[in-house]
Structure formats: structure tokens, C-alpha cells
């Protein structure tokens, strides 16, 4: 494209800069040779230089002699000394700047309206292509994440089945077999009231134990508190169950689809488990609030904190942080973790309140 634009506007060189919105700067993304190899290495702050000015203002600039234009900024690598005139157009998608397209000419010349119109149109075509490529990449990333989540879900289900089978086999079934023998013994002891009472007493204890083991096995499957109490009291009881540190709970009732409640509950559960396991905190706070069409869950501690570097940290250590992010992504929530060694950790999940009927993902979660 840079080559075509250069030829079509009878220029000598063309630069394509893309806007990095987060870092508020434009980065050289492509150019006609030999400058193409500088892609990614030349940057200007938003507002800096002519490209930065165009990106900031969303308006084109036609510059007959850049040495007389105080917006111009000399960048040695781009050999500014070889070129005199230039024009620059913002790459716009629905009025939003995604980059800047520049052409430069060696000899002094005045770019006309036709030249600028051509540059503007090419810039907007490129803007749309870039936007599409970005959307496509985001979609591909989301799809990959969903696949990973599905795999983990299947694995987790398998583990859960094995755990349940183990608990039923080793715990509940054994107790029931034993119970059966003690009932038989009681039947045989009709003429011996002492023995009868003893056997029935043991049988009663066994029945109680089997029942509590069955309850325990089921409790691991689904957070029943959510059905019984709802999210806010569920979170409250989860937080209050922590011992050894000061717990501050500030939750208000919210109305969310069941699968979103489960996801938030599980995220809070993992966050609190991390506080207990890693934070060495003296206090933890749990907050649930509904406002401005969103629900916000915050779990913060005053513990030792950690380095939240996505490149090195979470995935290597455990599944917890990754799992929280995946759950958040699935319910369309944003999750941020602010933590630095020595300053405690704050987890923040914001989920938009549903407008229409949301698809029920509870099966997956
Ligand atoms: N609240 C916290 N305070 C201090 N460190 C934390 C906190 N939460 C997480 N971490 C750090 O981040 C790491 C990653 O957490 P993550 O939950 O992903 O894994 P894990 O808890 O070690 O293992 P898993 O959750 O899979 O049982 C932890 O090992 C710990 O070092
Ligand atoms: Mg964890």
C-alpha cells in the first residue's frame, strides 16, 4: 500500500503509523523501502511531530515546507533532511483514529486537494482493513480461550466424578454396609435389650455419618448457598468462614442470571483462598455493589502482594488466576488484579447488568 500511495501522489516516500491508544503514541508500522525495516522501532507521543498532531486532532495536514512548520519533529532514522514537503492524513474508522498515513517529497511542492483526497481515501480504506484484522484477531483469541476453558471443564468434570466415586465407595458405601450388619445384629438381639440398644445406637451413628458424608460430597459440586440464600449472603457466609484474619463484608443484594452468580461466587472463592494461602494478610474486605448498570465485586487484602507480571507469573504457579480470568471473560466481565509486593492485593470484577435475556452458560461454568 505504501508503494502505491507514493506512486499515486508522485511522492518519494510513504510512512504508515498506527496509534497505540493505551500508550497514547503512534508507532511506525510500515513504509516504503528502505524505511520498512524500521517498523516497530520509531515512535512519537500523541501530539508530537506532524504524525502525532494528526493522530491527536483527527485532521489532515498539508505541509509545503516542513522546516517552516513548528509541529515538525526531526527523527534522524527517517532521514528528515532528505525531504521537504509532506502531507499527512488520519486513518479513521467511524470517526476514531487508528493511525496516520504520511507521504513526503524531496523537492518542495504544494500538494493539491486531489492529492489530499486520494491520501485520505486510502488512509480510510487501510483503517478499515486494520480494524477488521484486529477484530478478527480478538475473535480468534476468544475462541482459543473458550476451547481451553472447555478442555479444562471436561478435565474438571472427570476429576469431580472420580472424587465423588471415591467418596461414595470409601465413605458412604462402607458405612451403609456396616449399618446393615449392625441392624442384622439388632434383629438377632431381640431377647437381649442391652445388646439391642447398643447395636441400634451404633446403627444410628453410622446413619448420621453416612448422611453427613453424602452432604459433604454433594457440597463440593455446587455452591448451594446461592440457591438457598443468593449471591450477597452467599459471599458473606463465604467470607465469614475465614478464620485468623479480620473480615470486612459490605455486600448488597443484586439481581443477576444464575450462571453469572456462580461465576462471581467461584471467583470470590478462589480470591479468598489465595488470600488465605499466599497473602499473610491481617485483614480482607469483600464488597459487592450494583451501580450504573453494572455489578462490581472487589476482594482486597493487606497482605504481602505479588508481582502481577503476565509473562512470568500466574500460569506457571497455578490455575487460580487463569481460571478467574476465564470465568470473567465468559460472563463478559472485566477483571483486574492490582498487586505489588508489600502493598496487598485488590481484585476487581465488573460485570454489566443484563439488558435482554442472556444465554445460560451455567452448564459450562
Ligand atoms: N492475595 C494474594 N496475595 C499474595 N500473593 C498472591 C495472592 N493471590 C495470588 N498470589 C500469588 O499468585 C500466584 C498465582 O495464584 P494462583 O491462584 O493462580 O495459583 P495458586 O493459588 O498458587 O494455585 P491454585 O490456585 O491453582 O491452587 C500464587 O502462587 C501467589 O504467589
Ligand atoms: Mg489459587
Q: Looking at the structure, what is the overall shape?
A: elongated
Query: How many whole angstroms does the radius of gyration measure?
Result: 32 Å
**DSSP helical segment count:** 9
**Nearest-integer average pLDDT:** 88
The hetero compounds bound to this protein are: adenosine-5'-triphosphate, magnesium ion
**How many angstroms separate the termini?**
46 Å
Proportion in β-strands = 15-25%
String of helices and strands: HEEEHEEEHHHHEHEEHHEE
Structure summary, number of beta strands: 11
Report on the biggest sheet: 6 strands, antiparallel
Structural class: alpha+beta
Widest sheet, order of strands:
3-2-1-6-5-4
Low-confidence stretches: 357-365
Helix content bin:
40-55%
Structural overview:
- This protein is of the alpha+beta class and 365 residues long.
- The protein is 47% helix and 21% strand.
- The protein contains nine helices and eleven strands.
- It has helices at residues 2-8, 49-57, 113-188, 193-219, 224-228, 231-240, 258-279, 314-317, 320-330; strands spanning 13-20, 25-31, 43-45, 61-63, 85-93, 96-105, 246-251, 283-291, 294-301, 334-339, 345-352.
- Strands 3-2-1-6-5-4 form a six-stranded antiparallel β-sheet, with helices on both faces. Strands 7-8-9-11-10 form a five-stranded mixed β-sheet, with helices on one face.
- Helix 3 (113-188) runs antiparallel to helix 4 (193-219), helix 6 packs parallel to helix 7 (258-279) and helix 7 (258-279) packs antiparallel against helix 9 (320-330).
- The two termini are 46 Å apart.
- Mean pLDDT is 88; it is low at 357-365.
Amino acid at each position: 500500500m505504501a508503494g502505491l500511495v507514493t506512486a499515486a501522489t508522485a511522492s518519494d516516500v510513504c510512512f504508515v503509523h498506527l496509534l497505540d491508544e493505551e500508550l497514547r503514541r503512534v508507532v511506525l508500522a510500515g513504509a516504503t523501502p528502505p524505511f520498512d525495516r524500521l517498523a516497530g522501532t520509531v515512535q512519537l507521543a500523541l501530539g508530537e511531530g506532524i504524525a502525532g498532531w494528526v493522530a491527536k486532532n483527527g485532521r489532515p495536514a498539508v505541509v509545503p515546507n516542513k522546516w517552516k512548520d513548528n509541529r515538525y519533529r526531526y527523527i534522524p532514522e527517517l532521514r528528515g533532511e532528505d525531504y521537504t514537503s509532506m502531507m499527512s492524513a488520519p486513518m479513521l474508522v467511524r470517526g476514531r483514529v487508528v493511525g496516520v498515513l504520511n507521504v513526503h517529497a524531496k523537492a518542495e511542492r504544494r500538494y493539491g486537494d486531489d492529492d489530499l483526497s486520494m491520501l485520505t481515501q486510502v488512509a480510510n480504506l487501510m483503517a478499515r482493513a486494520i480494524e477488521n484484522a484486529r477484530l478478527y484477531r480478538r475473535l480468534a483469541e476468544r475462541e482459543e480461550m473458550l476451547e481451553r476453558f472447555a478442555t479444562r471443564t471436561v478435565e474438571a468434570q472427570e476429576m469431580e466424578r472420580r472424587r465423588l466415586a471415591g467418596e461414595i465407595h470409601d465413605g458412604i458405601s462402607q458405612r451403609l454396609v456396616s449399618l446393615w450388619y449392625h441392624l442384622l445384629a439388632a434383629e438377632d438381639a431381640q431377647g437381649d435389650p442391652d445388646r439391642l440398644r447398643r447395636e441400634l445406637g451404633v446403627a444410628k451413628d453410622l446413619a448420621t455419618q453416612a448422611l453427613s458424608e453424602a452432604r459433604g460430597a454433594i457440597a463440593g459440586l455446587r455452591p448451594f448457598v446461592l440457591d438457598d440464600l443468593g449471591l450477597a449472603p452467599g459471599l458473606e457466609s463465604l467470607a465469614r468462614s475465614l478464620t485468623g484474619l479480620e473480615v470486612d463484608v459490605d455486600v448488597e443484594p443484586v439481581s443477576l442470571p444464575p450462571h453469572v452468580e456462580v461465576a462471581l461466587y467461584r471467583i470470590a472463592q478462589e480470591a479468598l483462598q489465595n488470600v488465605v494461602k499466599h497473602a499473610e494478610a491481617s485483614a480482607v474486605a469483600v464488597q459487592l455493589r450494583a451501580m450504573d448498570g453494572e455489578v462490581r465485586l472487589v476482594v482486597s487484602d493487606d497482605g504481602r502482594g505479588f508481582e502481577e507480571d503476565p509473562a512470568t507469573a500466574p500460569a506457571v504457579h497455578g490455575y487460580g488466576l487463569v481460571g478467574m480470568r476465564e470465568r470473567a471473560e465468559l460472563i463478559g466481565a472485566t477483571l483486574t488484579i492490582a498487586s505489588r509486593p508489600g502493598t496487598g492485593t485488590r481484585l476487581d470484577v465488573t460485570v454489566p447488568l443484563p439488558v435482554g435475556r442472556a444465554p445460560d452458560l451455567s452448564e459450562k461454568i
